[in-house]
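Sharing a chain and its predicted structure for anyone who wants a worked example. Both blocks are below, sequence first, tokens second.
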Amino acid sequence: MSQFALLPNEIRANVFVYLDPHDLFRLRRVSKAVGQELIELTLLFSFAQLNIQIFCADYTSTTTGILNSYCFDNLNWHNLPTIYLEAAILEFGFDSVSPMVNDRYKMEEALWNIINQPVGRIGTRKLRDSEVIEALDFVSKGKDAHLLVKLLAGGQEPSSRLFVNAIKYGNSSMIQALFQAIKTPSECCDVCTFGCYRQVRNQLLALAAKSGNASVFRFLLGCNAVDVSYNNNAALLAAIRYGNYQIAFDILEDSRFNFTAPNNIAREQAILEARAKYKDVYQLLNYFGSSRN
């Protein structure tokens, strides 16, 4: 038994809490006896929270109370237990912590724990509405659609920025999760019409064409309310400009798209760009142009 074991629990916690968070885990590796005493302490949220507060105190302005990012730069979040990241988020705010932690998996794990655990177990509060908005923006750039749904369960309405993020990062499951989370006053509003997001649905189609993710594009193309020729055929031009042959084919094959219509502004531009860059797309355009004349 170590000498530390002879001390009351509250004394041991106060002794260890002033150590650098990394030192706590170095001690566990150096001394097996001390390590046994530390295991329980270092997995307590209250201990991690106080440890983070003390560690970051030197990096916080005494006049403004603003935390300097160097505090988080000096912490190796990859090696620290996730509960330290949870404590940092709830202590300093998600928007302050997330830009400083270059570990998406750990950030998402911390968010899961904060959302799922009762307030009394992990601290004195849940995420504020402003933090949920920032967290949604962060999560929509990743792959965890289930976490996105969990964050939206609090009543937040999906913003167009989340759709744009999901399109940009090519995550079709994220797009579908966002559609399912849309709430509108009108009962007859189908999520596939983007509901109150009519102003962005066609922009999203063009973004999907640019991204090259054919599965996402087809999902959007399947919505009846989508205008395939929106903004002078922006989707077709984006597909051609970035050499996305399959997406260009899907657009041209769509019955709502008339490539040979009079005064089709995009037709000549599309052919010129394709001829200069992508032989396959150029041949495709010529095929559709001649077959529909």
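Comments welcome. The radius of gyration is 27 Å.
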